[in-house]
Amino acid sequence: ATLIINTQKEKAISDKLIGVFFEDISYAADGGIYAELVQNRDFEYSSKDRTEWKATTAWQSTKPLVIASEQPLSKSNPHHVVLSQDTLVNNGWDGIAIKPGEKYDFSFFVRNLDVTKKTFQITLIAENGDVIASQQIKTEGQIWKKYTATLITKVPKELSTYTDFMNCRLAIIPLKKGSSVVDMISLFPKNTFKGRKNGLRKDLAQVIADLHPKFVRFPGGCATHGDGIDNIYHWYHTIGELHNRIPDRNIWGYHQTRGLGFYEYFQFCEDIGAEPFPVLAAGVPCQNSGADRNGIGGQQCGIDMKDMPTYIEEFFNLIEWANGDPATNKWAKMRAEAGHPAPFHLKYIGVGNEDLISTTFKERYLMICKAIKEKYPEIVICGTAGPFHTPSSDYIEGWEIANANRSIIDMIDEHYYESTGWFINHTDYYDQYDRKGAKVYLGEYAASTQARRSNVETALAEAVYLCHIERNGDIVEMASYAPLLAKDNHRNWDPNLIYFTNTDIRTTPSYETQRIFSLYGGDRYIETSVNIDERLKNRVVVSVVRDSKSGKTHLKMVNALPRELKLDIRGLQLPATVTAEGFAGNPDNQNLKVKVSSLPINGSILTLPPYSLNAITL
Ligand code: AHR
Hints:
Blueprint: E1 2-12, E2 20-21, H1 29-33, E3 59-61, E4 66-68, E5 80-83, E6 88-90, E7 96-98, E8 103-112, E9 118-126, E10 131-139, E11 145-152, E12 166-174, E13 180-189, H2 202-209, E14 215-218, H3 222-225, E15 248-250, E16 254-256, H4 262-272, E17 275-280, H5 308-323, H6 330-337, E18 348-351, H7 359-375, E19 380-384, H8 393-404, E20 411-419, H9 420-425, E21 439-448, H10 456-471, E22 476-481, E23 485-487, E24 498-500, E25 505-507, H11 509-519, E26 524-531, E27 540-547, E28 552-559, E29 565-570, E30 578-584, E31 595-599, E32 601-602, E33 605-608, E34 612-617
Parallel strand pairs: 1-29, 2-14, 14-17, 17-18, 18-19, 19-20, 20-21, 21-22, 23-24
Antiparallel strand pairs: 1-26, 3-6, 4-5, 5-13, 6-12, 7-12, 8-11, 8-13, 9-10, 9-12, 15-16, 24-25, 26-27, 27-28, 28-34, 29-33, 30-31, 30-34, 32-33
């Protein structure tokens, strides 16, 4: 095949193409990236989260546990446990993974029920019975007070046996007579990502940071609009003191503590140099909660119109909280008090998530977009194209609405999960999009096979498609694979980009594709064509971009054929040796990593291995 690169013909493309979409699905947040090790720390689990769950789930004691709600620590967290003489034990999320020789921050709130002072022994016990760490905490007084201790775990030589991570339980042992009530029992590794308090699991956050995402969309997905009006995600429920945040059931069948809230999301974005891209519900829950296209039939299909002005204030308040001046705005003051006086420079807001394009939706959606644009014209508003892509009527209508309202809708979020064949055969998908219309945010996509796991086949199909997205980077502004994270044994969805347990992380071939396209991205697309048999043209695809900041030109080359391919490169001088970063493997290989290698080169001819993706910089 011959690759013709026409360096005289280039066009501006988005420099924010590759980002991530973080949703609390498959235990991505609580029990996942949020580093809290205690499960149900606030005793707020209930059958609303999951039928068999209750306030004592994940806790054990020698006697039946007593849950009380008089004089709560916070009205957002009405329940607490009564502790008398019995040891209280937490099992964590599938255990508590503790490293020997490390520090852990323990804290709890206690209110003694009588005047005598109390002492609690806080202990980490390994499965083999070894005490890994222990500390005493003395409490006094009959009002709620927070107590903290640093648990320093024993070093390997002090333990009978040890592994890198010891699977532990946390025990709280009352040593004195009398009773206390206890709430918000928390244990964090000191060593979180960037050392943040109330922070993120370092390894998981790092593996996302390694993608160098240009933006992070959060907090969902379906988790954003929820499964009913009472389950819509209100961002301001997730900021402030942890015990005052309002937990809620997760549409994916578990519980959201909101410990990972908007402050933590924005902080993470700043820590990894990504644009924060929050998305909030368009005044309707998931698919308008079963309402028909005219909004009829659902019990509660949209926020009551009389309450919409108050709901719209939530968007304004978010913008002020993120960008406002703490001296003049109460929301910005909350940001400053949380530890971030400087603005977060929020530029993007998503309104709605793959909603059914009903009358109920349209009314509320346009009302929100108009109100934001009027007050904050500088904010880029991203609307939704409805649940399915072409040729669904929602998709067509979603786009019609956007293009009829260009002054208030800047970008449209499209979602599609398709087969590898679909991605390989739709490499002209965006070629016909109206360049005067709203920009595209491909907010959720993934290629899958019957096995519903990322493998080399899906990763190459996504690479082929990303070449096409780069070529259309003048209309496609952003793209994010979904879902991002999934914990083993708690998966709501497959395939995912990154799988994990309490101690391990498995990235996928699709992760490697995302990383290559992120690291070898640019802001100028250079025209190319591959001369090859028509039947193979969607399997041998190259994208050439230039990064005007560094002046570097990057080539991404996909060979999705089962054989080696000699690529004769015209229009750019190849050096004598080329170092490439990429992967090659059997299509069903689910477990490979990018390697740096020298590609065989002979004059202008590069040899690409079978089933491979390679990136080179010239
Ligand atoms: O990514 C998983 C889910 O897929 C998202 O929550 C939703 O937007 C889509 O249906």
